[in-house]
C-alpha cells in the first residue's frame, strides 16, 4: 500500500516538474516592450539567442545618430541587405532641422518592398528568426523590420514521386512562398485566398491554407482552420505531421487526406472546391476533403483524350484489386477451390507444388515478406548499391527460391504481378494501404478460401463506407450514389462534358463550362468554300 | 432511435437485395413443378398489397418504428409485449437466414469446416456493420448492388449462350389447379420473401423523403419479384422439373451447368459471392431491426452496446433451431409460415391498421367537435 502511494506521489511530483518545465519552455520574452537604449536591446537579443554564431550585428551611424542592423546569417539575402539597407542608410544626408528619426529611417532610407514597425519582443524574435532584418535605433522604443528573406533553397525541380507523361514538369519545393506562388501562377484569380498561421511551439512553422473563395465550402474551410488551430505540438517538420493531426480517423489504413507534389494537381483540386494546406519545409501539399476515387485519378487522365484516360483508369482500378487480392486468390484456389482452375493448369500447379514442403499460405507469406523487405531496402539504399541488391533480389526471388523448392514457380508469378500492380496506383498512400490489407486477406483466404476473401472485402467495404473526410463520405459519389457526380469517377468524361464541379465537395459556382463546348467542324466554313473555288 | 438518414435510392437498393437475399437460394415453391413461377408472381402481387398495410401504418406514424407505435395503437403494456415478440421474430429470422447460408456453405464447398465457425465469421462481419450504423449498411448495399446486378446479368447471358434453356420444360402451363397454386402462394411466396417486408416498418422512418417510401419500396419489390420469377423460369427450363424438385439449391445446380468455350465453367463460386453479399444484407437488416427495436423498447441510450450480445444470441439460435438441413428447411417452409409469418406479417399489422384507423377517426371527430 505504502509503495503504491509512494509511486503515485512520485508520479505526481514528476508531472508537476514536467508542467513546470513546460512553462519554462514557453518563457519567451513575452509582450515586453522594446527598450530605448539600443545597446541594451542588442545584449538582450544576444542573451536570448545564447550568443548564437549565426546572429549578424552591424552597428551603424546615421549622421550623429546610432543604430544597429541585426539579421540571421544564412536566412537573409546578403545582397539585398547591402544594397537596400546599408548603402541607403549610410549615404543618406540627415536633415539639419528637427525631425523624427524613426519615421525618417522607415520612410526614406529602407529601400525594401515590405517594411514594418515592431514594438514588442515577441514580434521581434518572430521576424528575426524567419529571415527579416531588424533595425534598432538608439532612443527609439520601436524597431524596424525589413523583408530580406533569402538564403539557399532548393530550386524548382521535376516531381520525383508523381510522374506524368504529359503535363507540367514542375514540383513543389521546401519553401512555402515558392509553393504558394506556383499555385498562384496557375490560378490568376482574386478569389484564390491564402490564409496563414504558425504551428509548432518550437519550430513555429508557417502553414498556409489555400482555397478558392466562392467554390470551396465555407463550412469545410472553417473546419480546417479549427482543426489546425487545435494543434498544439512542438514541431511540424513535414506536412505529414499536419495530416496525422487533422484527419478524422487514425485507425484506418486508408488515407483521408490527399497529398501531392504537383502544383497542377493542387490547382485542379482547388478548382473542384477542395482546400490546400501548405506547410513550410515540405514539398508535399495536402488537399482536403479527399475521397476514395480521387486516389485513382492521375494527372495524365486530364491531359490526354478521354477514351484513353478512361481505359487507363479502369486498368488502374483493376490493378488495385489485383494488388489487394492476388495472392489470396492463389491461396484460396489452390487450397479450397481447385475446381475453379482449368484441369490442365491445376495438374501443372499440383506437380510444381509437389516439391514444396509448405502450405500455400506459408509459401505466399514467405514470398510476400521477402518482396516487401526487398522493396523497403531498395528505398533506403544508396543508389550505387541499389542496383546490386535488385539483381540479388531478382535472382533470389526468381530462381534460387524455386530451385531450392521453397516456393513454386506459379507463386513467383503471382507475387510479381501483385507487386507490379501495386505500383500502378498513382498515390503511394493508397498503394501502401492495399499492401497492408493484402496480408489480412491472405490469412482469411488460408482460413476459409473465397468465403474469407469475400468477408474481408465486405468488412473493407463497411469500413470504407463509414469513413469520412472533413464531413464528406469517403466513398462518395459511389456510395452514397449521386448520378450527377459520375463524370469523373470510373469514366472520365470528355473535358467539354465535365460540366459541373463535384457537388459533394464544391458549394458555389458549380457550372464549369459554357454552352456548346463540344468541338465540331465549322458549319460550311468559309475556308472550305474558298478551297473549292480555288479548285475550280 | 439512431439519427440516420438514408436516401430513396439507398432504400430501393436495400429492398431489392433484401428480397432476393435468401429467397433465390431456398424460396422456390417446388411443389408446383413447372407452375412455380405463377406462385412467385402471385406472391409478389399480394405482397405489394400487403405492403400497403405497412405503408398506411407508416403514414400514421412517420417518425416511429413499428416497436414504438405499437404502444401508441394498442396501449402501453400490450404494445410493449407485442413489440417484444416482434424483436424476437426479427432476431429469429436473422438466425434463419444465417443458418441458410451456413448450410449452403457446409453442404457445397466447406464440407469439412464446422458450421459454427462459418456462421460466427459471418455474424462478426454483420456485427461490425451494425456497430457502424444504418447509414453505413445502406451505403454498403449501394456499393455492392452494382456488383451483384452485373453478376446476375452476366450469369443470365451465360446461361442463354450455353444453350441450356429448354422452354418446353414449362409445359403444360397451369397443370396444377388454381386452389393448389393459391395455397402455395399464401403459405410460401407471399410470406417468404415478400411478407418479410414487415421488417421495413422498422426502417422506413430513416428515409429522408417520406413521400417516396411507397414508390421506392413497391418498385423494389416488383423488380425483385420479376428477378425471382426469371430465376424460377430459368431453373425450371434448364434443370427440368425432376431435377428442379430434387435439387437442394436449384439455382446453384443451374449455374454449375454453365459451360462455354471449355473455359468458362464451374462458376459456383461466383454464385457464392453473389449470395454472400445478398445474405449479408439480409442478415444485417433483420439484425439491425432486432437491435434497434430492443434499444427503443428497453430505452438504451446507445444501441451499439447491445449489438454484440444480440449478435451472439442470433448465432446461437441459428445453431440450435434445427439439427440438420432437412429439418431446418421443413421448419422454414411448413411450420414458420403458419405459426410465425401469418400472425406477425399479416394478421397483427391488419388489426393494427384497423385500430389505428378507428382511433384516428375518433380523434379527428373529437377535434372537429371541439
UniProtKB/TrEMBL annotation, chain A:
InterPro entries: Spore_Ger, UPF0353/GerABKA_families
UniProt KW Transmembrane helix keyword: yes
Membrane-topology annotation of the record: Multi-pass membrane protein
Spans annotated as Disordered: 512-536
Listed Basic and acidic residues bias regions: 526-536
Transmembrane annotation, as ranges: 315-336, 386-406, 412-432, 439-464
Coiled-coil residue windows: none
Pfam families, per the entry: GerA
N-terminal signal peptide: none
Domain of life of the organism encoding this protein: Bacteria
Protein family membership: Belongs to the GerABKA family.
UniProt name for this protein: Spore germination protein KA
Organism annotation: Neobacillus kokaensis
Automatic annotation (TrEMBL), chain B:
Predominant location category: membrane
Pfam families reported in the protein's UniProt record: Spore_permease (PF03845)
Keyword Transmembrane among record annotations: yes
Membrane topology classification: Multi-pass membrane protein
Transmembrane regions: 12-30, 36-61, 81-98, 110-131, 143-165, 185-204, 216-241, 269-291, 303-326, 338-358
Keyword tags: Germination, Membrane, Transmembrane, Transmembrane helix, Transport
Alphabetical list of InterPro entries matching this protein: Spore_GerAB (IPR004761)
Entry's localization field: Membrane
Family designation: Belongs to the amino acid-polyamine-organocation (APC) superfamily. Spore germination protein (SGP) (TC 2.A.3.9) family.
The name this protein goes by in its record: Spore germination protein KB
Organism expressing this protein natively: Neobacillus kokaensis
Amino acid at each position: 500500500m505504502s509503495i503504491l502511494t509512494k509511486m503515485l506521489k512520485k508520479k505526481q511530483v514528476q508531472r508537476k516538474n514536467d508542467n513546470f518545465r513546460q512553462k519554462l519552455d514557453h518563457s519567451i520574452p513575452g509582450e515586453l516592450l522594446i527598450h530605448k537604449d539600443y545597446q541594451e536591446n542588442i545584449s538582450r537579443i544576444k542573451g536570448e539567442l545564447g550568443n548564437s554564431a549565426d546572429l549578424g550585428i552591424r552597428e551603424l551611424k546615421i549622421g550623429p545618430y546610432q543604430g544597429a542592423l541585426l539579421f540571421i546569417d544564412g536566412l537573409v539575402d546578403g545582397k539585398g541587405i547591402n544594397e537596400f539597407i546599408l548603402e541607403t542608410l549610410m549615404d543618406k544626408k540627415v536633415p539639419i532641422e528637427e525631425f523624427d528619426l524613426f519615421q525618417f529611417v522607415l520612410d526614406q532610407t529602407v529601400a525594401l518592398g515590405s517594411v514594418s514597425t515592431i514594438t514588442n519582443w515577441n514580434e521581434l524574435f518572430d521576424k528575426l528568426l524567419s529571415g527579416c532584418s531588424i533595425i534598432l535605433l538608439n532612443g527609439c522604443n520601436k524597431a524596424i523590420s525589413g523583408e530580406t528573406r533569402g538564403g539557399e533553397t532548393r530550386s524548382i525541380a521535376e516531381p520525383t514521386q508523381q510522374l506524368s507523361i504529359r503535363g507540367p514538369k514542375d514540383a513543389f519545393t521546401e519553401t512555402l512562398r515558392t509553393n504558394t506562388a506556383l499555385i498562384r501562377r496557375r490560378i490568376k484569380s482574386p478569389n484564390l485566398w491564402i490564409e496563414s498561421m504558425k504551428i509548432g511551439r518550437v519550430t513555429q512553422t508557417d502553414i498556409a491554407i489555400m482555397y478558392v473563395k466562392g467554390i470551396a465550402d465555407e463550412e469545410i474551410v472553417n473546419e480546417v482552420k479549427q482543426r489546425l488551430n487545435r494543434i498544439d505540438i512542438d514541431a511540424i517538420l513535414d506536412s505529414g505531421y499536419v495530416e496525422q493531426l487533422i484527419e478524422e480517423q487514425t485507425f484506418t489504413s486508408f488515407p483521408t487526406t490527399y497529398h501531392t507534389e504537383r502544383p497542377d494537381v493542387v490547382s485542379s483540386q482547388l478548382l473542384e472546391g477542395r482546400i490546400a494546406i501548405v506547410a513550410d519545409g515540405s514539398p508535399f501539399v495536402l488537399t482536403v476533403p479527399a475521397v476514395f476515387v480521387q486516389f485513382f485519378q492521375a494527372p495524365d487522365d486530364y491531359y490526354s483524350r478521354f477514351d484513353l484516360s478512361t481505359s487507363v483508369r479502369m486498368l488502374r482500378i483493376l490493378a488495385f484489386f489485383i494488388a489487394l487480392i492476388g495472392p489470396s486468390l492463389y491461396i484460396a484456389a489452390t487450397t479450397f477451390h481447385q475446381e475453379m482452375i482449368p484441369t490442365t493448369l491445376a495438374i501443372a500447379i499440383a506437380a510444381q507444388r509437389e516439391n514444396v514442403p509448405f502450405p500455400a499460405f506459408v509459401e505466399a507469406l514467405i514470398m510476400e515478406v521477402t518482396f516487401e523487405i526487398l522493396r523497403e531496402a531498395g528505398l533506403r539504399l544508396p543508389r550505387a548499391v541499389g542496383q546490386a541488391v535488385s539483381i540479388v533480389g531478382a535472382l533470389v526471388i526468381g530462381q534460387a527460391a524455386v530451385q531450392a523448392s521453397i516456393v513454386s514457380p506459379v507463386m513467383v508469378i503471382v507475387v510479381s504481378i501483385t507487386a507490379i500492380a501495386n505500383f500502378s496506383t498513382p498515390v503511394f498512400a493508397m498503394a501502401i494501404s492495399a499492401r497492408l490489407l493484402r496480408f489480412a486477406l491472405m490469412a482469411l483466404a488460408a482460413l476459409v478460401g473465397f468465403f474469407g476473401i469475400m468477408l474481408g472485402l465486405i468488412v473493407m467495404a463497411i469500413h470504407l463506407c463509414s469513413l469520412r473526410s472533413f464531413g464528406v463520405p469517403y466513398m462518395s459519389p459511389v456510395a452514397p450514389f449521386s448520378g450527377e457526380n459520375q463524370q469523373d469517377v470510373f469514366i472520365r468524361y470528355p473535358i467539354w462534358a465535365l460540366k459541373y464541379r463535384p457537388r459533394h465537395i464544391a458549394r458555389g459556382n458549380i457550372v464549369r463550362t459554357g454552352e456548346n463546348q463540344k468541338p465540331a467542324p465549322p458549319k460550311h466554313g468559309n475556308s472550305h468554300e474558298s478551297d473549292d473555288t480555288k479548285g475550280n | 432511435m439512431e439519427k440516420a438518414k438514408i436516401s430513396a435510392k439507398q432504400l430501393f437498393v436495400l429492398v431489392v437485395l433484401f428480397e432476393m437475399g435468401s429467397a433465390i437460394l431456398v424460396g422456390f415453391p417446388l411443389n408446383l413443378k413447372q407452375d412455380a413461377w405463377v406462385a412467385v408472381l402471385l406472391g409478389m402481387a399480394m405482397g405489394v398489397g400487403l405492403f400497403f398495410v405497412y405503408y398506411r401504418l407508416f403514414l400514421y406514424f412517420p417518425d416511429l418504428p413499428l416497436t414504438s407505435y405499437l404502444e401508441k395503437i394498442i396501449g402501453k403494456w400490450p404494445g410493449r409485449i407485442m413489440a417484444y415478440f416482434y424483436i424476437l421474430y426479427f432476431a429469429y429470422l436473422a438466425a434463419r437466414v444465417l443458418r441458410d447460408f451456413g448450410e449452403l456453405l457446409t453442404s457445397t464447398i466447406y464440407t469439412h469446416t464446422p458450421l459454427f465457425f462459418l456462421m460466427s465469421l459471418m455474424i462478426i462481419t454483420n456485427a461490425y456493420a451494425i456497430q457502424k450504423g444504418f447509414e453505413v449498411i445502406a451505403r454498403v448495399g449501394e456499393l455492392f448492388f452494382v456488383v451483384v446486378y452485373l453478376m446476375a446479368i452476366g450469369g443470365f447471358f451465360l446461361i442463354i449462350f450455353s444453350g441450356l434453356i429448354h422452354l418446353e420444360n414449362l409445359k403444360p402451363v397451369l397443370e396444377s389447379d388454381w386452389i393448389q397454386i393459391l395455397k402455395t402462394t399464401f403459405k410460401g411466396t407471399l410470406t417468404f420473401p415478400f411478407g418479410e417486408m414487415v421488417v421495413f416498418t422498422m426502417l422506413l422512418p430513416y428515409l429522408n423523403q417520406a413521400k417516396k417510401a411507397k414508390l421506392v419500396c413497391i418498385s423494389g419489390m416488383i423488380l425483385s419479384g420479376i428477378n425471382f420469377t426469371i430465376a424460377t423460369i430459368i431453373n425450371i427450363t434448364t434443370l427440368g422439373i425432376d431435377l428442379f424438385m430434387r435439387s437442394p439449391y436449384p439455382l446453384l445446380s443451374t449455374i454449375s451447368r454453365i459451360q462455354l468455350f471449355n473455359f468458362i465453367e464451374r462458376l459456383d463460386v461466383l454464385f457464392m459471392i453473389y449470395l454472400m453479399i445478398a445474405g449479408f444484407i439480409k442478415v444485417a437488416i433483420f439484425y439491425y431491426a432486432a437491435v434497434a427495436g430492443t434499444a427503443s423498447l428497453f430505452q438504451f441510450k446507445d444501441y451499439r452496446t447491445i449489438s454484440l450480445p444480440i449478435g451472439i444470441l442470433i448465432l446461437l439460435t441459428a445453431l440450435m433451431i434445427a439439427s440438420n438441413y432437412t429439418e431446418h428447411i421443413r421448419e422454414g417452409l411448413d411450420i414458420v409460415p403458419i405459426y410465425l409469418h401469418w400472425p406477425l406479417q399479416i394478421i397483427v399489422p391488419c388489426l393494427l391498421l384497423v385500430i389505428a384507423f378507428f382511433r384516428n377517426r375518433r380523434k379527428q371527430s373529437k377535434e372537429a367537435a371541439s
